[in-house]
Amino acid sequence: MKFLLTLFICCFYITGFAQEKSKTDTVLIITVDSTKKAHKKVNVRIDKQTDTAKKVIKPSSKFFAKMTFSRIDLGLSKNIDNGSFTLSPANAFLESETWKSTNFGFDLFEMAYRFNSYFKIYLSAGFDWNHMRLKQNITILPDQPSLSYRTDTIDYKKNRFSNQYLRVPLGIQLRSKDDKDGKKIYFVAGPEIGILLNGKVKQHSSERGREKVRDDYNFEPFRYGAYARFGYGSWGIYTKYYFNDVFAKEQGPSDFRNMSFGLMLGF
Prior knowledge:
mainly beta; eight-stranded antiparallel beta barrel; 13 strands
């Protein structure tokens, strides 16, 4: 009897050890009832016991595509002329008011592959605007072979020169575990391309009221650059830099590039 019981225990142990994918341990419980002097009663039962120390959780990997409203950027837009934030005399007509020259953008679509809880790669699409608030009383002229302007005698209350791009960033995202508040630290970086949708001049003056004119204004039709994002929870900061010129080749100032930086919402 003892031999059979020992053999049963060994076989059961080997079978339980082979079940590597099980999330619970199977336990054999043997109790002896010795209340009666005449004989001893042996009780055998099988139970399951969760061992949290031995749990192995495999993070799921998955591909997904979805509509979204995320990575909402609001920051400052700054032009760089031959590596300097100070514009050369030839490009001084594009000088803008720092705190009123802004960048705004957001993503509407995302296609991603999540490798695990901490790492994913995504390709998204959205819109991006750069607004230059010009200091001088000039008008950028539409439908010209190269960037041209005229000087006006009007004192503009607002003189905004802007562009809108379809942006397509490729993101490599890292994130931490949840902290005690259930929030994560995020870091995202990658390349971004942009396709020009339109340019616009928007002016406001006492003499002419409000005026808007749309044109491509010799902006670069296809731009490319890089960006980085860092944040905690839903909020963060971002910066973007474009490697090619703001204006199309031989249609505007050369080595005249744009960068932006600011706050963002939604990773």
